[in-house]
Specification:
This protein is 26% helix and 30% strand. By secondary structure, it is α/β, with parallel strands linked by helices. The protein has a single domain, classed as 4-Layer Sandwich (Nitrilase/N-carbamoyl-D-aminoacid amidohydrolase), CATH 3.60.110. The strands form 3 sheets. A 6-stranded mixed sheet has the order 5-4-3-2-1-14. α1 runs parallel beside α3. The model has no long low-confidence stretch (mean pLDDT 96).
Length: 270
Amino acid sequence: MAPINVSCIQMDIKQCSKEENIEKALIMAKNAVISGARMIVFPEVFSTGFCYKDLESIGETSESKRVEDYYTIKRLMQFSKMYDCVLIGSIIEKRIDTTNNIKYYNLGFCIESGNLAGIYRKTHLYGMEKKHFSRGEEILPIKLDKLNIKIGLQICFELRFPEISRKLTIAGADILVTVAEFANPKATQWNALAAARAIENQIPHIACNRVGVAPFASYFGKSLIINAWGNIKAEAGQDECFITGEIDPDETKRIRCKVSIINDRQLDLY
């Protein structure tokens, strides 16, 4: 498998301003594509931020109930098709269940070359999310058919749970991706956790954070692209930017031949 150029779009998110945020994200993504990126990762809920006061109006939904018909997903699918790239991130979803109750989710997505490859609804909710969102019910990698790899997608707070990234790894993930709004003053924890998830699972890790200020927090950025050894290939500062680095999914095989963490687990003891 050939190495892949990947980019993190580290952006400030204007609270509740969906159109403005999408336009900014796509401009930054276009610049990343021009720089050679094939896979582009946005921060958590990049199109709106945690816009709790307007969930009813900003939550993504459609009459068909198909995620492919959500407004933001359709915009991203068009971009992905035009530039033959992969887009990964999360948005706020509004769903009506079989009993006509409205539920909101932090919806992760992977789009490849114009097609929705898969979704992941955040399973481990943090803080005010517990009041407003429902949690997802499964943790599985998302297959990218054209690249022939699996993405292990997790969302922000879930970086703190090694069980999630390990479950994704055991299920065949080739690349771990974390989309986040990791807030101040937790930059040291962010760096340590992001590297640890790569090292302990021996897979590359793309960790994309936001910058700027929201009603409840401020954000430090520090997005990271980490290889399967845990070495940082690219690192952002605290300003809006995109970073690009090359990751090699096949490096995992070479590393596991030298240090066989996955095979050496003693499952009978834990």
